[in-house]
Design brief:
By secondary structure, the chain is an alpha+beta fold. The protein has a single domain, classed as Sufe protein. Chain: A. The protein is built from 4 helices and 3 strands. The radius of gyration is 14 Å and the shape is globular. The structure holds FE2/S2 (inorganic) cluster. FE2/S2 (inorganic) cluster (FES) binds next to α2 and α4.
Length: 138
């Protein structure tokens, strides 16, 4: 039952991605490739003061990578840099099984992915891109 729900959530984000597109003159524009499959994602973000005022993503990849990118944009929108960094760290520690996935949250739909180590890169691709963008001074 939960499994079906999770599949539905992933497919929903994949088919109707939130915040897919580009941002003109972004503060962050980071392109990352998943070396395991060659799929790619570009993450764009705009800051207003310390807050993420807009975040978008583009690229192509499997349902997991696209759904996870879509969920990430919803998650990081409006966050401060520090809070965004915390979200990214938190998500990555869920994907390594160190911390639990939140209940009643779309992100929980990615829980099953941790059983497939090769797909973890799919799920973390956009998040790593955002982090890299911030590290690079965006
Ligand atoms: Fe390429 Fe998932 S198979 S990003």
């Amino acid at each position: 039952m939960m499994r079906e729900l999770y599949t539905q959530i992933i497919m929903d984000h994949y088919q109707r991605p939130r915040n897919r597109g580009e941002i003109d003159n972004p503060d962050i524009e980071e392109h990352l490739l998943n070396p395991l499959c060659g799929d790619e994602v570009t993450v764009y973000a705009l800051f207003e003061g310390d807050k993420v005022s807009d975040v978008k993503f583009g690229g192509r990849g499997c349902a997991i990578s696209q759904a996870s990118a879509s969920m990430m944009t919803e998650r990081l929108m409006g966050k401060s840099r520090e809070a965004a960094e915390k979200e990214i760290k938190g998500f990555k520690s869920m994907m390594t099984g160190e911390t639990e996935f939140p209940e009643m949250d779309d992100l929980a739909a990615l829980k099953g992915v941790i059983q497939y180590p090769s797909r973890i890169k799919c799920a973390t691709l956009a998040w790593n891109a955002f982090q890299k963008g911030m590290n690079d001074g965006g």
